[in-house]
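Hi support team,

I submitted a single chain yesterday and got back a structure, but I'm not sure I'm reading the token output correctly. Could someone confirm the output below corresponds to the sequence I sent? I've pasted both exactly as they appear in my results page.

Thanks,
R.
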Amino acid sequence: MTKRSWVTCLDLEGILIPEIWIAVAKRFRVKELMLTTRDIPNYDRLMRHRLRILKKEKITLPKIRRVIGRLKPLAGAKGFLKKLQAAGPVIVLSDTFYEFAGPLMRQLDDPTLFCNSLVVDRSGRITGYRLRQKDGKRKAVRAIKGIGFKVRAVGDSFNDLTMLKAADRGIFFRPPAVIRKAHPNLPAASNYAALLKKLISE
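Hi R., thanks for writing in. Yes, this is the structure output for that exact sequence:
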């Protein structure tokens, strides 16, 4: 029987790039936008909260894009990604939006990205969002396994748990203490060298 090849699935924010919403919150000094899936596991609830704040503070997509345009990938992320890609296919599975991710993806040489889309009106106001599909990270992992690959997955937050558990090898990268404590059975890494070793070791 032929040995199955591995595909690696990575979360994006906190793994390869900074948390975009935190950067936006700091730029516009809006504390309510600091919350992420590390704080509110229910993604729809979190996004409805964000949309309310954006409307209240009159923060439009063009304004957010200007913030994103000044961000850089996390230190060491690009080198880590290149080494990982040399070991096999890599897919980034994220709950971010194509309208946000473009500039940072280009800095990472455009890895394959599956994420979601925003609904934006003519004035640039973000009025809603469209999920690629509900629980998309887990379903992507199961689909990849369904066509004969083994899957390694890396995440750092509550919304990554179903992906990590569905994978053949799920690993936390720099998770908050509350998540690490709640899921001690999942291995974790605190730097890219350790993460790479956990991912590519058989």
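A quick pointer for reading it: The two ends are 18 Å apart (CA to CA). Let us know if anything else looks off.

Best,
Support desk
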